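Regression test attached.
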Amino acid sequence: MSGNGEALLGAQEIARVVRRLAHEVVENNRGAANLVLVGLLTRGYPLAVRIAQAIQEFESVSVPVGRLDVALHRDDVGRRPAPVRPSDIPVSIDGATVVLVDEVLFTGRTVRAALDALMDFGRPARVRLAVLVDRGHRELPIRPDFVGKNIPTALYQSVKVRLAEVDGEDGVYVMGEEAAHA
Amino acid sequence: MSESLLIRGGRVIDPSAGLDGELDILVRNGTVETIAPAIEPGTARLIDARGCIVAPGFVDLHTHLREPGFEHKGTIASETRAALRGGFTTVCAMPNTEPPPDSATAVEALLERIAQDAAVRVLPIGCVTRGRNGRELAELGELAAAGCIAFSDDGSPVADGRLMRNALQYAAALGLPLSEHCDDPVLSAGGTMNEGRISERLGLSGQPAAAEVAAIARNTALCEATGARLHIAHITTERGLALVAEARQRGLPISCEVTPSHLFLTEEAVFGDGPAPAYDTNAKVNPPLRTAADRAALSSGVNAGIIDAIATDHAPHAIQDKLCEFDQAAFGISCIETALSTVVSLALRGELDLIRAIGALTIGPVRAFGIDRRVPGAGTLAPGRAGDITVFDPAARWQAGPGTLVSKGKNTPLLGRELPGRVRAVVLRGELAHLEEPAHA
Amino acid sequence: MLEIKEQPAAPAGPEPAAFEGWKAKDLLDTDTLSTANIETIMETAEAMREVRARPVGKVATLRGATVATLFYEQSTRTRASFEVAAKALGADVVNLSASGSSVEKGESLIDTVRTLEAIGTGVIVIRHKSSGAPYLAAANTSASIINGGDGTHAHPTQALLDLFTMRRHVGSLQGRKVVIVGDILHSRVARSNVWTLLASGARVVLAGPPTLLPRTLALSGELGGCEVTADFDDAIAGADVVMALRIQKERQEGGLIPSLREYIRGYQLNATRLKRANPGALVMHPGPMNEGIEIAPDVAHGLASVIEEQVANGVAVRMAVLYLIVTGRAP
């Protein structure tokens, strides 16, 4: 990371947190049956894949993983340009327990958009939310079901999650004002 | 008795007399009295011409005044004032009016309006055919007697070769030139710009250069057959010019003119300067702006004296005639006020020979149409004669725009472009008709 | 149930490095699009294609936006395609035709466009018989203008959907041979395709009767390495994509083609000729087709034909263009 301090979480800690999240998800669901993990693009998706791998390791069950792009469902369309990428949910979510996976939970607006997008694909029995980091400052009545780590932050700060699949390394960083404005 | 004028300290250029030097000109009693160095002013009004060129008043063989019939585009009053600002003291009015001057009555009515409203000398050109319909000859003898300086159907080429031959025979007998828009209308049908790279790029239908070349070839043959004075209006093609040069070498009575627009611009003007096409309707003109090679040949033609006249084809249009789809837009460029500036630009760039170019604005057109028979001394500074003088500052720069153009037509692709060459004073029939003090004075 | 996609989606790689959205107010032609612009449209169209494949093939992204289709020329597929695309993004659509509107009463293009702008239309799709008309409109309104085909000039969204379709089948077009056959001179489809294909690194050959080729333009070098030839049999050899254009029957009356029979003999895309192309070469046509004239029915509906897919992809590409233009005009 470019000169913005130490990682709050390193690769080993992230791996531990992912394993814990995997356990919590399975425990909450009373097994891995009927479970679909849906990771939000960009970094929620590789996290979802990792959680699925962990479940595979200790439950020997393959949980389907989908990816979801929320750009078309944002509430700030036209205020800032955003790329749109294809979503891909490889199984039907009708009647399934869908766990949305994202890297950072902040205002809750992305999750709101994700719920909206998800409904285009079917009618799940229930939807849960798993996040690697909850940094607070919710603007909508949304709460996570599974939290990797709570990191209290100031509004001017930003939380960056880097994952090997996307960024070449694992790490969670809190960045200062300048970075927040970058 | 009008006031005497002393035009002092300018560079006097009169190609008809081979004159080029720092001289003063004294104008008295409606004519040039003396041209000499350091004339004593006496009581004469002084016109400071230092840094300026002093030339005979310019003569335009091809002006559209639009009146009668199209007063929303221009009037005799508005367009002759524009001519004056452009340095022109004599303009030949093209007959594409409504009604057109195809009868003695129509010409007489036109002359009446001219006498009332014109700010410069206007010589009417009569129609070749009735209503410019290309089918029946107009009463050419009557038109000549009524005062027409030449014949032309203007933008409607006389397509019928037999009719053209008959017209030329009459023109020969009457001793008047026939000015022809040389174009094969079938080859050019539907064309809105030069056929070539840009038309293919923009998906616009084109007018091929061959349409002009073919018509010049035919009309040259008819000129030879009849002995009439054929004037080729607004020549645009390198190959067409070569035909004219060859015909003149054989001694045929052919003259030709080029417009400042075709000397200065190419088909690129339709596309514009940006990365995306402009579809600039102000660059839509008939005959169309051609290629860079054609443009270069036309400049050479002026320098070599093959082209007799720089004639404006000044064609003012109302805003709505141009602010529309390209194929719907009217043809024509309003350019009588920018003509001098484009000539000066080309001279500064070394493309045009200044003396030749001034000749093509003065004595060249006078000889082509025999205007000196009607207006003795036109196109010259000859003492005792017409008394038409144009004083211009070749270094002064200005911008053509809706606010600076006097013409009703603001339709020029040079809008917003800074140009060198500004007319400072015009003397018409020995009287100061226009004076513009330099901004810093 | 969700269908299983024939192509696995790309892995969740890094976000496009510097996505800056869409800066241009209008889409008038493909000639001024950068390679990055084209990539953005292609990637966005890929996402839109996925949206169309969802059980609910519709989102509300552009709710509140109004898109007008202003058509001065008859058109079925382009207009329907734009309308479906706008509605699939949740926009409201106003359809205007030259007939049955104030245009019939002599209202000028500029006035019509300004009226649409005044009633809150943010995007106006224009189809016009005059080349350059959308440029006139764009210069005289603050609404976004999308060129839906102007005269014999340009048809940018057709070229983009053609490129999208080619890329889905051929992958990168770098070095691939694309042959366009027909009335190139009067084809807005061909002209706009040339720019996107050249930007994509394709080798482009334009084939057609000698009277219907843009020879001066090709000779000028402005079309890059684009080749122009009257010999279709030669041109089609080794082609990866062959696109036949609609031949207007009026060209015969204009003397530009001696007869349809001779045109068919020299320029019809048929099975015999297609054998000269590379195996698996794509067959394309912008429609509407004159089957049996510029394209043989068995080829038009054969295995190599992606003509129907072009139409389907048209919606995704137009959604992409609408999305980019509307969201790119952030205050």
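Expected vs. actual: identical. The interface with chain B takes residues 28-29, 31-32, 108-110, 128, 130-133, 135-136, 150-154, 185-186, 188, 191, 214-217, 220, 222 of chain C (CB under 8 Å).
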